[in-house]
Amino acid sequence: MKTHRILFGIALIIGFVLGYKGFIKYYPSLLFKGAVSKIGGSENMIQLGNLIDHKSQVIVKPNPDFMYVSCFFNLEEGPLNLSANISSSNYWSVALYEPNTVSFYAKNDQQFQSNKLNLLIAQQGNLPLTIDQDIELIESKTKKGLVLFRFLVNSSDIDDVKEIKRIYKTIEIKRNE
After folding, report:
1. Is residue 120 one of the residues assigned to a domain?
2. Would you say residue 36 lies in a domain?
3. 163 φ, ψ to 5°?
4. Which of 117, 123, 131, 139 holds its CA 20 to 30 A away from the CA of 157?
């Protein structure tokens, strides 16, 4: 009888450990797939999010002081150039995420030398031979991921919102040639 209890206890512990490891390994990827379906859009296509209000839940705990621009990227066909002319006096940031939700790159407006954003996103092991001096190389461990821009905005100031929409139109992502 005691042997059965001990075996049951061991099986329970092993099941818990395996379940926990599986959860840790696969849950972030499920979250990423959920984000892809919620945000929508095609890969390698820039999208401007709506102004955030109390009903917004596309992004986990969205901040109503920000407008978000996102792009799910795919490096299967080679590196991508991400460029923009961000001439805003407001705070902004750009971050890149792996499908498991780990951020592998993040910078804000104070860390860039100019208003011109010029990044090259390439998968490790598939880096270009030469890179122009004005381009910052970002190495991704994965073929797919997310680019997320955050722009501080006063949502009640129409001119402020228009400025972010103007900046959004300057953001491009395209194949590196």
Report:
1. yes
2. no
3. -65, -45
4. 117
